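Hi Y.,

Following your request, here is the sequence exactly as I used it, all 520 residues.
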Amino acid sequence: MASPPSIADALLSVDVGTSGARATAYDTAGAMLLEVRRPYPTYTPRDGWAEQDASRWRSCALSALGLLIGQLAGRCTIHAIGLTGQCPSVVPIDGHGTPLRPGLIYRDNRAVAEAESLCNAFGAEALHTLTGHVPAAFHVAAKILWIRAHEPDVFRATQLFLQPTEFLALTLTGEAVTDWTMAAASALLHLRERRWAPELVAAVGLDLAQLPVPYASWSVVGSLRPALLHRFGLTRPVPIVIGAGDSIACAFGAGVISPGPVSEMAGSSTCLNTIVSEPTSDLAVTHYPSAVGPEGYVTEVGINTAGEAVDWLASLTYGGRAGRLRGDDFERLDREAGEIAPGSDGLLFVPVLGDGERDDPALRGALIGLSVRHDRRSLARAALEGVAFAIRAHVEGLGRASTPATEMRVSGRAASLQTWNQIKADVLGIPVRRVPGDATTAGVAMLAGLGVGVYPDPESAVAIACRPDAPAHPDPANHDRYASIYEHYRTVVASSTLHTGAVPTPAADRPSHHYPEERA
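Below is the corresponding structure, written out as tokens. Let me know if you'd prefer a different format.
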């Protein structure tokens, strides 16, 4: 095994996430040095809509990065900056780099009809074979079609359609670039050839020049622009490595680089990723090119409001009169949930609180079996179990399509909740291992290290920088008890009573895009 490089060297990552932007510094042995966060809000002006002020993606990311670099000044050498972010989210920008409307984030489900039009034109199976995805309102392609149909003036004025990471890359380097995984999230990339599929680009009414150029995730795509070097007080060029989509970077940071383990990125949303040598034929499983080599693929399924559903519950029941959460509120929720027996005394929670799920825009959440005998501990347990049931449904689907799961590696804020990890192990029937720190930003730092030669190969990066905790093993009795509850959960989710007939709001009823500014 290679010896850890000097801790005097630093690799930086910037994550343009769902709840805000953050800049993180790691030493080259994988230890986090510093992190700076800058939050921004999500707006939901209509049922099924979810938007963010894209100018905040840029300003908050630059603010976080600048403060981080300032705190690192003189303490270490910055070898590279890697990028990641939420996806698939998109914003149209003009020739001056200015957003023309708010960004449509991944859980925005207004473009159902546009996704169906792509499937009708090309065929769902053909598109899945070509791109690794069946277009849904979730994807960038459908969101672009919605803008084209409902906001034609914006569409005509757009020079580039960019995802948050791509928008940041343009800001940092002056280059319109992306990586293979981000590009795949658009449902416009030829999966095997790692290039834009011209027939699909034409179908959404674009020229190739309106999309960023795709590169391998470890590619150096430029250097920090001179004006930013001056702003951040730097005197030498800093390479920018394009990085990968947040969940794909998370899988690498969790050490998931071969079949068997499942990576869970447990953030506002949950993404589940596995490694396959060839794409599967299961239309419910999406695919991305490998972030760590020219061959191989990463599968993905996900839940839009997993951590966000628990946040919602915590703010209602643990956040005090104003709903303001303290740092230990989640630990208290987790601890109190552990005081309730498996099954939450008959309470069942369906964690779909984002006006639809990525694979089912009509699905809505529910809390079933509620009684005056339940207290907040029961509600907390039900929420943690509900997310675990949703995860099990997806993990089983991944196992049917490829290699059955051998263990799950959990990273993100929720990974520190021990009761929740044990619930997941009991529901899934496999060991669950926490990855300390944050595997997403760590994975991006590792990609940055690969890009500039700090690590010779992905295996060395994982051996040096990834150290998962000891696993939580499933309790056989609890696993058996959860089996029948899980089947009840599946029946409830399939019920028509949890599906709304709501349709996207007509263009004439759209609200103003002038949202109140909030302090970062």
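The first helix runs from residue 54 to 72.

Thanks again,
Q.
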